[in-house]
Amino acid sequence: MTPSDVKATLSFSDGSPSMALPIYKGTVGPEVIDIRKLYAQTGKFTYDPGFLSTAACNSTITYIDGDKGELLYRGYPIEQLATNCDFLETCYLLLNGELPNPSQKIAFTKLVTNHTMVNEQMQFFLRGFRRDAHPMAIMTGLVGALSAFYHDSTDINNPQHREISAIRLIAKMPTLVSMAYKYTVGQPYIYPKNDLSYAGNFMRMMFATPCEEYVPNDVLVRAMDRIFILHADHEQNASTSTVRLCGSSGTNPFAAIAAGVACLWGPAHGGANEAALNMLGDVQKMGGVEKIGEFIKKVKDKEAGVKLMGFGHRVYKNYDPRAKLMRETCHEVLGALGLENDPLFKLAMALEKIALEDEYFVARKLYPNVDFYSGIVQRAIGIPVSLFTAVFALARTVGWIAQLNEMIGDPEYKIGRPRQLFNGATARDVKPLAARV
Ligand code: ACO
Q: Does 264 sit in the ligand 1 pocket, CB within 6 Å?
């Protein structure tokens, strides 16, 4: 960390001694005030629920400028990665810091491809779930269960274990997501096919049956791959911070990633793509484009408790760059499938236009996020709505692993242990049961 010439001084109105706090500069982005010695020197904690002003780590992986609407993976703009690279190149970049050269790409693709099958016992484990279980409930269980099947890669402090568990997780997530899907629809599982691309293989495992050959459509494979790239990492979001916190106890990588899957499920995070599509369906049922005004009124009424799902972001106070790319992919996919007049897409575009001009959204800098359009693309590809968040988890797995491995490799890493402002009862005596009122 590079120290800044400027120091912060914390002073107190009661005459307690003030404290000088070091400031560090990153390569880009806001500087940070180092408060690590604050408690030792003043006996006080800082208070920042929701981490509105707190950097919890030092990272080199992903940078977001929320005001500009900029997203960089290892310095590369997301627009260039989405246009010039495929998902496995992006995985290599996130894990290793550099894009692969041609021979590195071949070796990495081969390595991932060789780990796509899962232990056959996983099928029997899956059978314990109800057929109507939510895919994210199944995924939380399956990913956590990997640690019961792959004992030889569970030591988070062993770099080789970390490397092999990373490859296993990236390789096996598409297999697990498609197994979760096939289980819920009662179809046989389709084994991976190693001559297909990562995204093409996922689509085949999802949509093929043993009865006939399945040839994935190139436009849809590219769209799927782009969904994966756009969701691959997003710096210290809720699920990534969950993975870091969980991993900070020294637990195994599969358990830490399962914690990330569980966090991602929430509608304020990865569950928003499912919620956004359901919301569009509800507006469609209300009467579609004609009823947007009525719906927006409800969104603005705090009492109604309705949010415009797929809008707003803690960091982006401008158009989410991923949403722009996803909107473009939406056009391509619907065009390739002859669905240009898809009513939900038209509704989404009309809703976006009205919201972007509305004072409520303008004043709060609420713009569409990636989930506003990714649901429409996934639905057009044929992915059921309940599986959207599992697809997000599949893509985010590489980001979680890169962040987890970065933390473990950081010499300053410690178990994560937030503190609190306690406002409960102070010490008191337990009364015998008969004396309690
Ligand atoms: N619809 C209506 N109002 C909203 C929305 C929305 N989608 N998002 C924020 N607001 C309002 C809030 O009510 C608040 O208004 P107020 O200042 O009058 O109280 C103001 O905008 C600020 O919002 P916060 O909730 O304080 O912002 P925060 O950073 O905590 O939340 C979040 C960000 C959770 C993403 C929020 O915008 C939201 O719930 N959006 C909908 C869900 C969604 O799309 N999530 C996906 C996030 S991206 C991802 O995970 C890939």
A: no
